[in-house]
Design a protein that fits this description.
The chain is α+β, with helices and mostly antiparallel strands. It is built from 9 helices and 7 strands, in the order H-H-H-H-H-E-H-E-E-H-E-E-H-H-E-E. The structure holds adenosine-5'-diphosphate and magnesium ion. The site of adenosine-5'-diphosphate (ADP) has 21 residues, from helix 7 and helix 9.
Length: 333
């Protein structure tokens, strides 16, 4: 039992403990004088009673501090599971609650870090195993070094390169190492460049038609042009990759109500409703994408970081009869 837990100030608690001790001493001394007990015996008795009372009343005042010390030591060893008792309403209790919150957050960060390491290793291992298998066959003379084999090897190496670049990018974005360099620029120019690049050599996926609508046509944006280019390139590359051959990818930009809304829509299979939030997580790929394309599952998490750095918002929507629409909304600063 912690008798003074209901009090919200440690000063009041200490006050009560002192007053109780003094009262006990006075009472025992008075009684001693009345019963003619020698003052030494009375003093010792008063001291013992006061100490017992203090022990009882002060229970729970400092134990959270000791618990925190133990927990902090365990945390330093990498164990974030320990929580401290935070029933008291005073400053120590408040500290204990904040401490528990902190350890929960550290536990979550630690979990994310472990997941990241596991994911990165897994993603690295896949192309490396594929390369190793082909190289072994080449060395053993089981397979001839023909252009098809070499091309498949090149694809794995490209995938490794993309993965390394995107990981580096994500870690730079997350650590805030690269500040945004915002400046005004024309949306039309940017979109035209992206379409040119998406059609150009080296693009992955089927040939598609692009439909671009920008209203007003002179729409301009204040953002980091390179970073925003990266967002749109990612969305357009996804749309192209998920499009059926000969399909249409729509790119729409419109400014209204102090916001600029960008949409990239395709006629592919779309993203099931339950997965629409998760596709922005690192390494998240639908099962279909996981087995078939050479994606890394990092594109959309990078896009979300960049959009959020611009104080904007990004989400995925469905499309009738089928398809996916990615929406980015940025404040018009
Ligand atoms: N336009 C789209 N149509 C259908 N699914 C999509 C689309 N864009 C993204 N996705 C899904 O979201 C996942 C994550 O996308 P992304 O982060 O860009 O990774 P990657 O493109 O490297 O697979 C994709 O693997 C895919 O499952
Ligand atoms: Mg992608």
């Amino acid at each position: 039992m912690r008798p003074l837990d209901f009090l919200s100030s440690i000063k009041v608690k200490l006050g009560i403990v002192i007053v109780a001790a003094v009262a006990a001493t006075v009472a025992v001394t008075g009684l001693g004088a009345w019963a003619d007990i020698p003052w030494v015996v009375g003093g010792v008795l008063a001291g013992a009673i006061s100490l017992t009372m203090v022990q009882f009343l002060a229970r729970g005042m400092t134990s959270p501090l000791r618990e925190m010390t133990t927990a902090a030591k365990e945390m330093a060893q990498g164990d974030y599971e320990r929580r401290v008792t935070a029933t008291s309403r005073d400053e120590v209790g408040e500290l204990a609650r904040v401490f528990n919150q902190m350890s929960a957050e550290l536990a979550e960060t630690d979990r994310l870090r472990r997941d990241l390491v596991a994911n990165v290793s897994h993603e690295l291992r896949t192309p490396i195993s594929a390369l190793q298998a082909v190289l072994e066959n080449l060395v053993d003379g089981v397979e001839p070094p023909d252009p098809v084999t070499l091309r498949s090897m090149l694809e794995q190496v490209e995938r490794l390169g993309r993965l390394a670049n995107q990981l580096l990018d994500l870690s730079r974005l997350e650590s805030g190492a690269v500040p945004l360099q915002t400046q005004p620029f024309e949306v039309k120019e940017l979109v035209e460049r992206i379409v040119r690049e998406a059609r150009g050599p080296g693009h992955r996926g089927p040939d598609v038609n692009f439909e671009v609508r920008i209203s007003p046509p002179t729409l301009s944006l204040i953002a980091d042009p390179e970073r925003f280019h990266q967002v749109m390139t990612n969305l357009v590359a996804n749309a192209v990759r998920h499009s059926p051959g000969g399909g249409t990818v729509e790119i729409v930009a419109a400014g209204s109500d102090g916001k600029i809304r960008f949409e990239v829509a395709d006629e592919g299979p779309g993203i099931p409703e339950g997965e629409r939030g998760r596709v922005f997580e690192r390494f998240y790929r639908s099962d279909a994408a996981r087995s078939s394309d050479g994606g890394t599952g990092l594109g959309l998490s990078i896009a979300r970081w960049i959009v959020e750095l611009h104080h904007g918002e990004i989400h995925a929507e469905g499309r009738e009869p089928a398809g996916c629409r990615m929406v980015v909304e940025l404040p018009e600063i």
